[in-house]
């Protein structure tokens, strides 16, 4: 064991001895030992700045030695130091500094009704200031107030020039929107070239508002005169980053949301969705009562009646057509416990494995591909590993928009010079900072990754010992790679072979290379093949099983990892045991106490097919808006119309809910408790903040009620009790207990004694040896069949402001920031098609058409178009196809053959 050099080294605060920790500043040392030192320009999330000097302390290098006054925030603590935090001279110094600061601040500062929201007021009180001596030396009351933004405002007359906002924008978000203009008393914080929030490039993360010690920049909704009764910690329900949130509540109403600094995942940072886009929860459009279709209309009914209709129709369908005529789609937006219940209902009460979730249309190729290569489909490492990695490879992911807190961390690393490879057809924000941007044609990942493997092998940069000791299938793989026709792959992918070679060698030579991937990998006909190709690269270079390496899917939804873990898949039950294996059937039968179905069930696309063929009669969808989000919209609608009975459990009357026979009002994440599992396998506690609106109920309780209506006895929904049941069935949940999750949760596998796991596959793979797989690159059918008639390739993605079907974000101020799906088109194509920016265009494919506004942009290459799918009024999935991944049926949203013309 190596010895910790600072172990047992001691320093003193106000005469008391304490152990010091490596790398600590005096301020951190004091705070850790519960000594209060006032600060103004300090924020623990950022580098120390040492500008305000309020944190000054007296420092002596030995007892009774001469003292020096030093800023504690940026002076390192060292052995034997004696710190005085409250000497008379220090107290006087602090008071003088704050008095000067106050001269730069409106007169009413000490009396303004900030109710604990003003750090400056707190610090003034702490240093003993009762009145302002030099009143209004610098009057900034003429500074404009900026009220242009739905969520943030600025009133720079209150600014004290601590620059925390500027540093937060740079160091936390990495956006560099805020800056300083002028000097001394006249210096002023500006946004961009002195613009409003609205006109600037601000991404609305709110880090500046959170850090501002006065109200110079603040949240619009932060009501100064209302103080929260309670602050509740919960988890964001948007993306798979899983940010911790601290919600301020009064009288069952949410006042504001902030990011707690001690959160493991997001340490005081969120994006605008987590921090601000919560107003959907009490929007008038929320569903508040069950609805049943009568004479063609959805009408309000009692829960009792709705349950009766459902139980009767499911019983009837089951007796007439058998259990496999019924299917369920569970929700990656809901909790683990709710997902567990939903699959249990389908398997145990109905008796079918027809259960799936949005992982199908998202990362099912990741789960499958990584299971084939490693044995486990989940991220091998943690986001924290970014601090240890030497090379970051981002393939088909746009984390700045889709996983903003992780994206900001990646961007910070890139700005600090960490080598990076970005493989993406679009010039994303991350690509702008990349060392190597491989801007391939959509649909050619396997070609590019095979080229990378070729160059690594050719240069002799493989990790022989890893390959020999930890993998199988190498010799066949290597033979196939060596036989590749590089010129052909270069031509089909459109990426210069020299660039691919440089990137490949950088990846292989790096001491620790970490890959992240997203939907640009999975949502393709070769999605699973691409995932396995990424695993090949990691294994051949030994980038698995230690800090700062690995294969890390940026999982999409807040709980898509959990939905699959809980068994919301047609081929594997809770804990990933294949349902068609006798031993597993015995296992589940014993746990559930009833017979379990033995045939693999329908995946979502197979449900449509079965509905078309008259085999599927009834469908229960919990929290997924397939009518908007699944591809080939007309086909989806047509398939749903062929069902006898459709139940949709929602928080809004989504496009799918509009088609239902019964609509059940679920409670949103702010109105219920449970757990979400983020993209790094972290199981975190979601805690109820307010009571459900109207007559809504937690999705878990609704499932329990329907289980009971159909004669199965299941206890009321209670996450603690549910987790007990789950921990008996899902081996990697063995040690998960509700009361032990704390604020930042635990990463699975959680052992029976409660210890959790940060890095997978350290010693061996789940499947024993890692497996190499080789695949030829294949042109997708979409291009082969339609390219002549539809010569452009459209790729569809998401933007920062809106979330998937947009049911939630469209009902918040985010709509004021972005109000439509926009089509990006290269200037050359625009010229050839005679299109201008802002012009409406018709975009059409073999399936249908949409009309969108065009924006001319060099972010896409000629021949490539790009848009998003957030608005039902545009319905981009009118034009996407039913082509899908060869192994998992994940739709090919990323390659759509289209043509475009002026509308
Ligand atoms: N703001 C916001 N955040 C979200 C969501 C949202 O809707 N809005 N949705 C959540 C969900 S469900 C998910 S799954 C994640 C998705 O997050 P990401 O995985 O980042 O998904 P996308 O932005 O759809 O696509 C990622 C990138 O793939 C690129 N791409 C397209 N075709 C190819 C290709 O052939 N090869 C390569 N290498 N790249 C390609 C696109 O240009 C795009 O930059 O985001 C989650 N977070
Ligand atoms: N063209 C195109 N289409 C795509 C994609 C793409 O890249 N391009 N990406 C695909 C991907 S990756 C995904 S994951 C899917 C996502 O597609 P969906 O899963 O349909 O998208 P969401 O908007 O997340 O929809 C979830 C629904 O759950 C509801 N909801 C939210 N919270 C709760 C709750 O607590 N209880 C209940 N009962 N309901 C709730 C919301 O109102 C919303 O209607 O879209 C896919 N569609
Ligand atoms: Mo997703």
UniProtKB/TrEMBL annotation:
Superkingdom of the organism of origin: Bacteria
Residue span(s) of domain 4Fe-4S Mo/W bis-MGD-type: 229-285
SUPFAM superfamilies registered for this protein in UniProt: 2Fe-2S ferredoxin-like, 4Fe-4S ferredoxins, ADC-like, Formate dehydrogenase/DMSO reductase, domains 1-3
SMART domains on file: Molybdop_Fe4S4 (SM00926), NADH-G_4Fe-4S_3 (SM00929)
Protein name: NADH-quinone oxidoreductase subunit G
Record-linked PANTHER family: FORMATE DEHYDROGENASE H, RESPIRATORY NITRATE REDUCTASE
Cell location: Membrane
Entry annotated with the keyword 4Fe-4S: yes
InterPro entries xref list: 2Fe-2S_ferredoxin-like_sf, 2Fe-2S_ferredoxin-type, 4Fe4S_Fe-S-bd, 4Fe4S_Fe_S_CS, Asp_de-COase-like_dom_sf, Formate_Dh-H_N, Formate_DH_asu, MoPterin_dinucl-bd_dom
Molecular function as annotated in GO: 2 iron, 2 sulfur cluster binding; 4 iron, 4 sulfur cluster binding; formate dehydrogenase (NAD+) activity; metal ion binding; molybdopterin cofactor binding; NADH dehydrogenase (ubiquinone) activity; NADH dehydrogenase activity
Cofactor entry: [4Fe-4S] cluster; [2Fe-2S] cluster; Mo-bis(molybdopterin guanine dinucleotide)
Organism: Aliikangiella coralliicola
Main location: membrane
């Amino acid at each position: 064991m190596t010895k910790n050099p600072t172990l047992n080294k001691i320093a003193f605060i106000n005469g008391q001895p304490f152990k010091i920790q490596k790398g600590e500043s005096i301020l951190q040392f004091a705070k850790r030992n519960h000594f209060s030192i006032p600060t103004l320009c300090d924020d623990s999330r950022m580098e120390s700045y040492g500008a305000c000097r309020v944190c000054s302390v007296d420092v002596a290098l030995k007892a009774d030695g001469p003292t020096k006054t030093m800023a504690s925030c940026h002076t390192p603590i060292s052995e034997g130091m004696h710190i005085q935090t409250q000497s008379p001279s220090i107290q006087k110094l602090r008071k003088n500094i704050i008095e000067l600061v106050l001269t730069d601040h409106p007169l009413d500062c000490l009396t303004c009704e900030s109710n604990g929201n003003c750090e400056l007021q707190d610090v003034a009180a702490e240093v003993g200031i009762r009145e302002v001596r030099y009143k209004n030396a610098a009057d900034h009351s003429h500074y404009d107030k900026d009220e242009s933004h739905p969520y943030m405002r600025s009133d720079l007359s209150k600014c004290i020039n601590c620059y925390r906002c500027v540093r937060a924008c740079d160091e936390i978000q990495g956006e560099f929107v805020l800056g300083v203009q002028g000097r001394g008393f006249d210096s002023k914080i500006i946004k961009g070239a002195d613009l409003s929030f609205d006109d600037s490039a601000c991404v609305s993360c709110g880090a500046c508002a959170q850090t501002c010690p006065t109200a110079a920049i603040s949240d619009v909704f932060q009501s100064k005169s209302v103080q929260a009764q309670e602050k509740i910690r919960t988890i964001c329900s948007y993306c798979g980053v899983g940010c911790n949130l601290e919600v301020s509540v009064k009288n069952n109403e949410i006042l504001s949301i902030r990011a707690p600094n001690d959160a493991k995942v997001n340490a005081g940072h969120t994006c605008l969705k987590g921090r601000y886009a919560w107003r959907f929860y009490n929007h008038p459009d929320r569903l508040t009562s069950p609805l049943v279709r009568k004479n063609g209309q959805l009408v309000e009914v009692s829960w009792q009646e709705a349950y009766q209709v459902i139980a009767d129709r499911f019983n009837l369908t089951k007796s007439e057509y058998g259990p496999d005529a019924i299917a369920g789609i569970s929700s990656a937006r809901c909790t683990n416990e709710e997902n567990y219940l939903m699959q249990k209902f389908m398997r145990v009460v109905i008796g079918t494995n027809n259960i799936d979730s949005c992982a199908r249309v998202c990362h099912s190729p990741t789960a499958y591909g990584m299971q084939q290569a490693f044995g486990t489909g989940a991220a091998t490492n943690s986001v924290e590993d970014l601090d240890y990695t030497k090379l970051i490879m981002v393939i088909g992911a746009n984390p700045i928009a889709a996983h903003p807190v992780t994206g900001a961390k990646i961007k910070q690393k890139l700005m600090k010079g960490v080598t990076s490879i970005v493989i993406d057809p679009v010039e994303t924000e991350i690509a702008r900072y990349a060392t190597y941007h491989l801007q391939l044609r959509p649909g050619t990942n396997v070609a590019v990754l095979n080229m990378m493997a070729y160059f690594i092998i050719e240069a002799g940069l493989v990790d022989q010992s890893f390959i020999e000791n930890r993998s199988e299938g190498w010799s066949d793989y290597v033979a196939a790679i060596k036989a590749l026709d590089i010129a052909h792959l270069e031509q089909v992918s459109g990426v210069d072979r020299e660039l691919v070679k440089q990137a490949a060698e950088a990846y292989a030579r790096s001491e620790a290379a970490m890959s992240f991937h997203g939907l640009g990998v999975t949502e393709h006909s070769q999605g699973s093949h691409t995932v396995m190709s990424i695993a090949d690269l990691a294994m051949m270079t030994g980038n698995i099983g230690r800090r700062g390496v690995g294969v890390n899917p940026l999982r999409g939804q807040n709980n898509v990892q959990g939905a699959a873990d809980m068994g919301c898949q047609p081929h594997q039950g809770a804990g990933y045991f294949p349902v068609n294996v006798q031993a597993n059937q015995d296992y589940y039968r014993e746990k559930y106490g009833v017979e379990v179905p033995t045939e693999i069930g329908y995946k979502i696309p197979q449900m449509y097919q079965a509905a078309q063929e008259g085999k599927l009669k009834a469908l229960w969808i919990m929290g997924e808006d397939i009518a908007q989000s699944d591809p080939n919209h007309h086909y989806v609608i047509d398939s749903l119309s062929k069902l006898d009975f459709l139940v949709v459990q929602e928080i809004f009357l989504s496009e799918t809910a509009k088609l239902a026979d019964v609509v059940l009002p679920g409670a949103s994440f702010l109105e219920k408790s449970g757990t979400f599992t983020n993209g790094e396998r972290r199981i975190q506690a979601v805690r109820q903040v307010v009571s459900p609106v109207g007559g809504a109920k937690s999705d878990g309780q609704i499932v329990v009620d329907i289980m009971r209506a159909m004669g199965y006895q299941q206890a009321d929904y209670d996450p603690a009790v549910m987790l007990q049941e789950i921990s008996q069935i899902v081996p990697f949940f063995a040690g998960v207990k509700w009361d032990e999750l704390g604020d930042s949760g635990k990463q699975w596998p959680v052992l029976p004694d409660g210890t959790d796991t940060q890095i997978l596959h350290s010693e061996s793979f789940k499947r024993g040896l890692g497996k190499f797989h080789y695949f030829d690159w294949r042109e997708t059918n979409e291009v082969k069949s339609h390219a002549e008639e539809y010569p452009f390739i459209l790729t569809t993605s998401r933007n920062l402001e809106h979330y998937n079907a947009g049911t939630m974000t469209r009902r918040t101020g985010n709509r004021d920031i972005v109000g439509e799906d926009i089509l990006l088109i290269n200037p050359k194509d625009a010229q050839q098609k005679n299109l201008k920016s802002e012009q409406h265009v018709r975009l059409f494919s073999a399936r249908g058409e949409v009309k969108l506004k065009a924006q001319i942009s060099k972010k896409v290459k000629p021949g490539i178009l790009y848009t998003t799918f957030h608005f039902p009024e545009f319905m981009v999935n009118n034009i996407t196809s039913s082509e899908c991944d060869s192994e998992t049926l994940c739709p090919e949203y990323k390659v759509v053959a289209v043509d475009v013309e002026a509308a």
